Amino acid sequence: VIICAGNQAIKNYNELTSNSVDEVQQIHSSDYVGYNSIKGKNLIIIGSGQSAIDIIGHGLIHAKNIIHCTR
What phi, psi does 7 have (nearest 5°)? Predict the structure, then answer.
């Protein structure tokens, strides 16, 4: 699962070039509805805005692993 935080809720997705692209779900932070969608999953959070930090907070409790990427 990759959750991308954008600027001013403008969805900005990164192009994935891995062979496992079909196994990766990308959702934008504006589509995030709660911790049930990340429960037990591995997360890559891209961004450092308020919504990214809020989702990281949920992930610390509910996700399996978290990687946080910023520029």
Answer: -90, 125
